[in-house]
Amino acid sequence: MTDGRPTDSNRTWKGVLATILEWAVPGRVPLVWAYVLAAVLPVAVLYLRLAMGYTPGAPPALILYMIPIIVTAYLGGLGPGLVSTGVSALISDYFLLPPLHSLFIESPLSRVLWSAMIVGGILVSVLVEALHRARRRAYEREEVYSAIVNQAADAIVLIDAETLRFVEFNDAACTGLGYSRHEFSRLSVPAIQPAGESEETAANLTDRLRRGGEYFETQFQCKEGKFLYMWVSSMPVTIRRRQFLAAVWRDVTERKKAVKAMRSSEQELRSLFAAMTDVVLVLDHDGRYVKIAPTNPVNLYRPSEALLGKTVHDILPKEEADAIVHQIRRALNSDRTINFEYKLNIRSREVRFDGRYRR
Predict the structure, then answer these.
(1) How far apart are alpha carbons 62 and 114 in whole angstroms?
(2) What is the pLDDT of residues 100-142, one digit of tens each?
C-alpha cells in the first residue's frame, strides 16, 4: 500500500522520459547521428524479429520497419528517412523473404507488401521533410518577429481577454516594471494596477482594454511599489477562435514630470513679470509691436491688445515715434545695446523711460 506519492522508480522513469523528449527534437540531433540511426535501427528491428522465433514462410511483419523509418525521418528529415527505407528493404528481402539470403522475392504477396513498405517509407520521408521545412520557416519568422518586438522600447503584450493574464510580451514590458520574464508571465493586468486603486477605477481600465481602439493614460505599479504613468493603446484580436487583447504602453512618467516642471517654471516667470513695472517689448524694423511681455501694465501707453500689430506711429505722438524708430534701427544696424531716454504722458501723468534697444 502506498500513500500516493511518487516512488523513486517512477521519478527515475519520468526523468528518463523527459530527457528523451528533450533530446528527440528535430534539428537537435546532429545529422550524422540521424544517418547512423537510419542504418542501425532497421538492423535492430531485424534482430528483434529473428529473436521472436521467425521461421521461413512465417509472416515477415514488414510493418515493423516503418518504426525506424518514421523515427529517423522525424529526427533527420528526407535523407535519413530514405536511407532507413533502403536499409529496411534490403535486409528484410535478404533475411526474411523467401528465398532467404537472396534479393529475389518469390511470393507475389510478399512482393506487394515489400513494395508497399518502400512506397510508405518514401512518402513518410517526403511528408516529414515538408513538415521540417515548414517548421524551420515558422521558427525563422518567429525569431525575426521576436527580435523586432524585443528591440522595441515600448511594452508590447498579448493579454487573454477572459482572464487578463499576460500570454506573450516583449522584454520592455517586464523589465520596465521591474519583473523577470518568469515573474511577469504569472501576472495579470489587475496585478500591476496600484494597490489602493478603487474597484471602479480598476474596472474602468479593464473595460477600456477590452473595448480597444483608443488611447488613454493610466498608472501601473512596479514590483518595488513605485508608480509609473503609462500611455496605453489596445486592440481586441482573435487567434484560433480565442479572444485576446494586443496592447502597447509607453512610460510617460518623466515627460509628465518635465511638463509639470515647465508649468511651474512658467508660473514663476509669469509671477516675476507681473511684479515688474518695466515695459518689455519686441518691435520690428518699422516700430511695430510684435510681442509684449506680461509685466505690470501700469506703464503701458495703452492696453496690450490695443498695441499688438500696430506701429509706434499709430499709437504715439509723431515726435516720440520718430525718435523710437530711429533708435530701433540704430540697434538693428549696430548689433549692440542702444540706450535712449524719453518721456510719455500716460493717463494724465508724465512717465520718464530709460529705454534700451538691442537686436
Answers:
(1) 7
(2) 888 888 888 889 999 999 999 999 999 999 998 998 898 888 8
Give the three cell numbers for residue 169: 510580451
Other beta carbons less than 10 A from residue 84's beta carbon = 32
The answer, yes or no, to whether residue 218 has pLDDT greater than 60, is yes
| Close Cβ partners of 181 (under 8 Å, ≥ 6 residues apart) | 169, 171, 174
237 touches 246 (CB < 8 A): yes
Q: Give the relative orientation of helices 31-51 and 78-95 as an angle to the nearest 10 degrees.
A: 20
Burial class (CB in 10 A: 0-12, 13-18, 19+), 233: middle
Task: Give the CATH number of domain 152-253.
Answer: 3.30.450.20
Task: Considering the chain, tell me which residue range(s) the CATH 3.30.450.20 domain(s) occupy.
Answer: 152-253, 276-357
The model carries a pTM of 0.52
Pair 247, 159: CB distance under 8 Å: yes
> Using an 8 Å Cβ cutoff, are 84 and 70 in contact?
no
- The reply to whether CATH 3.40.50.2030 applies to domain 276-357 is no
In this structure, the number of other CB atoms found within 10 A of the CB of residue 31 comes to 13
CB neighbour list of residue 185: distance below 8 Å, 6 or more residues apart: 166, 169
Element containing residue 257 per DSSP (H, E): helix 253-275
3-state secondary structure of 267: helix
Residue entry with cell 518504426: 67
**HSE-CB for 48 with a 13 A CA cutoff:** 12
